[in-house]
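Before drawing any conclusions, I looked closely at one protein's amino acid sequence and its backbone structure tokens, quoted below without any editing.
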Amino acid sequence: MERSQARTGDLSWRLSSHPITLLFFLGFRISSLLFYLLGSLFTSNFILVFIITILLLAADFYYLKNIAGRRLVGLRWWNEVDPASGDSHWVFESQDRSGSAESGAPSQNATDKRFFWLALYVQPALWVVLAIVSVVRLLNPIWLSLIVIALILTITNTLAFSRCDKFSQASSLASSAMYSGGMAKSLAGGLFSRLFRG
């Protein structure tokens, strides 16, 4: 019986460039769901389950937004408020993770990327399923309020990182077109050849 070798991109935390960051990220993502589901087995005190679940969700939100996103996929986001007008806008930041020689940045680990995006999208989906179950079973409305808080926190991070990823892809495409000259050169060449062709 042959033992299969793990390949880059497989879902094995051992292949991660940042295994401790990845394990904490997955731990925070899983812990709030597990405590919500299993907390009533350990105690009949609803307030304790509610508070601990909220604290775990807040820790997950903070860790994902400020540490895991930056280390695992090179993305960060934050919200800035203009003090003069009071308008708020989201700011997105991405590291160059192409691994190209001229950038000097390390390449992005496929395992880290897969774990990050999978966990980012699966957790809100599980909270939606729990919300549906809560409505169908007509549980106490206070449980539904906890699920709504969980959905707000997880969907905010999911939307922000999705936008941040799209922003980074668009800016990397624009910078590669401008600086490498490949796409810009072919567009300019095609335009000038059409103008000066009789």
Notes: Confidence is low (pLDDT under 50) at residues 190-196. The chain is about 70% helix and 5% strand.
